[in-house]
Fold this protein.
Amino acid sequence: MTNPFFKYRSNEVDNDLRLTVLSSSFIPDSFPHRSDQIDQMVKILSSVMRNSPPSNLLLYGKSGTGKTSVAKKVSNLLKEAFPEKVKVIYINCQLNDSTYSVLVNAANSIIANENEKIPLSGWTVERIYNELLRQIEKFSGFIVLVLDEIDKLARKNDGDSLYVILKLADDAKSSRVSFIGITNYTSFLETLEARVRSRLNQESIVFPSYNASQLRDILQERVNLTGMAGMVEESAVSLCAAIGAREHGDARKAIDLMRISIEIGIRDFMEKIGEENVYKARDKYEMNILRESINGLPLHSKILLLSAVVTQDQDKDNMITGEIYENYKKICDELSVQSLTSRRIGDLLSELDDLGLIITVTRSLGRYGRTRVITVPDHDELMKKYLLEDEVLNTFKGIKIGKQHRLKMDADESQSRTVKEDEMNDILSSRKE
DNA sequence: ACTCCACAGGAAAATTGGGGTA
DNA sequence: TACCCCAATTTTCCTGTGGAGT
């Protein structure tokens, strides 16, 4: 008999292919509302034709404004136009946020032979630097080094990393090295020291946020590329655009929403993709963000977050660093994991705060010391679920939350409680502002 | 005005683990 | 195999601090 699943399978493959134009890694041929930026970039990079090295470039703009896509597109066009003369190296500094890994990745992307690739650890920075330099010289042409999320790199050891990498341009003799820096922060340059700033600040291009109608153009064009334009209602496109516009004009989010909406429609055998798909997609999108950021957490951050969630579950009005740390240690015990020091936990708490998974407010509780008051924002049940997907955490059964935190033992019970309730109310109300 | 809690967070030492060299 | 070098991570040690209690 014929496999009854085949018809679905072939359908899926087909749809997956069509939906790749709505994936975040897809680089389109045309960029609506970005022709100014593209023209500027082309003008600057085209100095290669006259055999003079392009100025260094800085691209500014919030996330989802097309910086990365445009940079990739234009630099690829340059490479296509002058294949013998130009090499483009793209590095995401969020993933490679040390001098070491940037240099290794840069070198490895030039080295063609697998066997000569540089190992991901072991070499000295100097040795890698020299090897990269050697490779660059060997090429003797124009190298364009794209540093995406360059601010992540600049923050590391006083921007020394950035300085070393920019120095490549001076040290390379027979090749010319240019840089394209990409960043979300408008004030990025100001945070740099002079020696780095002057090198980088030759040309800059701003990518303004998209408004709703621009987003609609972009979405419509992408939807047309999928060949499913007939299925997608105009109102759905508009809604995606509106949601993206609300999020500082984020095209990435708008496109993701569109893709998820369509996926939901296909899955449910719907004939039309309408607004309700988009609303469903938005929920799914938020959940995916949460799930991914939790999945990507290192083990101890997961345990710590679990401790925060469980603690808040049982004891809403008393979440301070010390208590979460105590419970963290208990969970570590239960999971037979060696626990980390409180100093380290302090840093991990800050990281969780940066990720938006918890909210921390440092404040002084007077007689009861100076600490951070911690809140787990909504979704705590969902967080717990995702946390327990971890293969180490999934043996977690629950712990007894001791109430023996020193704050409560030493202090007069009723008084300390009112103090803390006031504190928590302050925090909650200040968050709403 | 002074104390002192319960940490925050900087600096530096120690540990871990990949990789090279003899 | 023993040993060195190095980056990253974590610990150890430390100084600083806002404000309720006294």
